TrEMBL record:
Gene3D superfamilies: 3.40.630.30. Coiled coil: none annotated. It comes from the Bacteria. This is Acetyltransferase. PANTHER family: LYSINE N-ACYLTRANSFERASE C17G9.06C-RELATED. Keywords: Antibiotic resistance. Residues 3-178 form the N-acetyltransferase domain. InterPro entries: Acyl_CoA_acyltransferase, GNAT_dom.
Length: 182
C-alpha cells in the first residue's frame, strides 16, 4: 500500500470532526467534536505552535487516517507516566493513530500507516532511538496493528485511558531504530 503523510492544516478540521464522530473512533479517542473543540485541540499543532505533529495519512490520494507523533520529552508528565511502566530512552517518540472511515478498518491500512510513520520517523527525527506506543489492552485491533507493523510488546501497566469507561490496563509497544545499513 502506498501511504503518504502530510501535516494537518486548518482546512482538514471538518474531516477530523467527521472522523472523531465515527463510533469506531469515538469509542477509543473520546474527543469533543464541536468545531471549536477541534480547532482548540488541533489548531496549535497545525500552526506549528505545539511540538507534536498531527499528520494526515493518505492511501493513494484519499485521506484515510490521522497520526499524532511527538517526542516524549516534550510532554514530561506523559513521559513520567510511561517511565513508571517501562524504561524510556532519551529521545524516544510516540504515536497515536486512527483510521477515519469505518469501511477501511480491518483491511491492513492501519498497519500500513503505522509502518509509514515509523519509517518517516527514522528519517525526520534522526535522534530518536525508538518509538513507544501505549494502547488500551481492550483495544485489540489497535495493538494487533502495532504487532503486524513490527512493534513488540515490552510492558503492561496502568495508565490513564483516553476514555474513562476503559480500564487503566495498557500494553506498551516498542520498535527500535534499525541498525545502520539494514
Amino acid at each position: 500500500m502506498n501511504i503518504t503523510l502530510r501535516r494537518v492544516g486548518e482546512q482538514d478540521f471538518p474531516l477530523l470532526r467527521r472522523w472523531l464522530r465515527e463510533p469506531h473512533v469515538k469509542r477509543w479517542w473520546n474527543h469533543e467534536t464541536t468545531a471549536e473543540a477541534v480547532a482548540r485541540d488541533f489548531g496549535p499543532a497545525a500552526r506549528g505552535e505545539e511540538p507534536s505533529e498531527d499528520l494526515l495519512a493518505f492511501l493513494e490520494d484519499r485521506p484515510v487516517g490521522l497520526v499524532q507523533r511527538s517526542r516524549l520529552c516534550d510532554y514530561p508528565d506523559y513521559l513520567a507516566e510511561l517511565a513508571a511502566v517501562v524504561p524510556v530512552p532519551d529521545g524516544a517518540m510516540t504515536v497515536d493513530y486512527l483510521i477515519g472511515d469505518p469501511r477501511l478498518t480491518g483491511r491492513g491500512i492501519g498497519t500500513a500507516v503505522i509502518r509509514s510513520v515509523i519509517g518517516r520517523t527514522w528519517v525526520e527525527h534522526p535522534g530518536a532511538p525508538c518509538v513507544l506506543v501505549p494502547v488500551v489492552a481492550a483495544n485489540r485491533p489497535s495493538w494487533r496493528a502495532l504487532e503486524r507493523a513490527g512493534l513488540r510488546r515490552v510492558g503492561v501497566g496502568d495508565l490513564e485511558p483516553d476514555n474513562p469507561v476503559d480500564d487503566r490496563t495498557h500494553y506498551l509497544y516498542r520498535v527500535d531504530r534499525p541498525a545502520a545499513g539494514t
